[in-house]
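ok new one. same drill as before - C-alpha cells go in, u give me an amino acid for every spot. 255 of them this time. try not to just spam alanines like last time pls lmao
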C-alpha cells in the first residue's frame, strides 16, 4: 500500500513529495515496523513514476518476501539541484564534470539530512506505527554518498545502511576524512557495492570502483558488520539496482 504527500523542507525552504510504502497488513494489525529512508523516492516503486521509466519495484519485493518494513522515499530535486542536496560538501572540481557555468556544486547535504532527522523522521514516527529506534537508510549514486554521510553524522539513528553504486568521488577526500573521525560502533550493518560497468558523465567505471574500494578499506574497520560487493557487468541505473534488491534487503533486514 502506498501513500504520498508534500512536505516543507524547512532548512532548505522548499517543498518535496514523500512516498511511503506500508506493509499489506498495516491497517489490519497493531504492529510497529522498522523504517527505511531512501532518496530518489520517485524511482523506488513504479516504473510510470520513475525519472527514466525504470523503478526499483521495492514494494513488490517486500510483499513477496513478507518483510515487516515501512519505506519512506523522498523525491529528489531536479538537475544540478539534486547534486546540491546530495552533496554534503561544496565541490569546485565537479564543475568541470557537470557545469562550467557554476563556481561550485553540492554543499546542501547537511541541511537535507537535518530535515530528515529533525523534521521528517519525527513526523513519520508520529503519523505511523514505527519502531523509532529501528531506522535505516539507503541510496544509490549521489544518494549513496549522502547516505554514508548521514550514517557518520547520526550513527545512533541510522543503524543499518546501504550505499549502492555510490558517487564517493564527488566528495572523496571529505567523506574519507569524515568516516575516519566518526564513531560508527552503533551501526549494525553497512552494505556497499559497485558495478564493473558503471559510468556517468566523464566519470568512468574504474573511478567508481577505486572510489568505493578506498571507502570500504576505511569503513570495514569502523563498522561491526560491513559488506562490499563488486558486481560483474552491472551498469549505473535503476534496473541494475532492482536486480540487487534481494541481496541488499536480505543482508540488511533478515536475521
Amino acid at each position: 500500500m502506498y501513500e504520498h504527500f508534500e512536505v516543507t523542507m524547512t532548512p532548505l525552504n522548499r517543498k518535496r513529495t514523500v512516498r511511503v510504502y506500508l506493509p499489506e497488513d498495516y491497517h489490519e494489525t497493531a504492529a510497529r515496523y522498522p523504517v527505511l529512508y531512501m532518496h530518489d523516492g520517485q524511482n523506488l516503486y513504479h516504473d510510470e513514476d520513475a525519472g527514466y521509466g525504470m523503478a526499483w519495484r521495492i514494494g513488490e519485493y517486500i510483499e513477496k518476501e513478507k518483510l515487516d518494513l515501512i519505506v519512506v522515499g523522498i523525491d529528489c530535486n531536479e538537475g544540478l539541484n539534486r547534486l546540491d542536496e546530495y552533496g554534503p560538501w561544496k565541490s569546485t572540481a565537479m564543475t568541470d564534470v557537470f557545469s562550467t557555468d557554476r563556481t561550485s556544486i553540492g554543499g546542501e547535504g547537511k541541511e537535507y539530512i537535518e530535515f530528515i532527522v529533525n523534521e521528517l523522521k519525527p513526523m513519520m514516527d508520529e503519523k505511523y506505527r514505527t519502531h523509532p529506534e529501528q531506522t535505516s537508510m539507503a541510496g544509490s549514486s549521489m544518494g549513496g554518498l549522502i547516505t554514508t554521510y548521514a550514517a557518520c553524522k547520526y550513527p545512533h539513528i541510522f543503524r543499518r545502511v546501504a550505499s549502492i553504486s555510490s558517487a564517493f568521488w564527488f566528495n572523496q577526500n571529505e567523506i574519507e576524512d569524515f568516516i575516519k573521525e566518526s564513531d560508527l560502533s552503533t551501526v549494525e550493518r553497512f552494505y556497499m557495492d559497485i558495478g564493473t560497468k558503471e559510468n556517468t558523465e566523464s566519470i568512468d567505471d574504474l573511478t567508481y570502483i577505486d572510489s568505493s574500494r578506498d571507502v570500504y578499506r576505511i569503513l570495514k574497520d569502523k563498522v561491526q558488520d560491513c559488506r562490499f560487493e563488486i558486481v560483474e557487468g552491472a551498469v549505473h541505473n535503476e534496473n541494475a539496482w532492482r536486480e540487487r534488491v534481494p541481496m541488499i534487503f536480505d543482508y540488511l533486514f533478515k536475521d
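The mean pLDDT is 95. and btw The longest strand covers residues 130-140.
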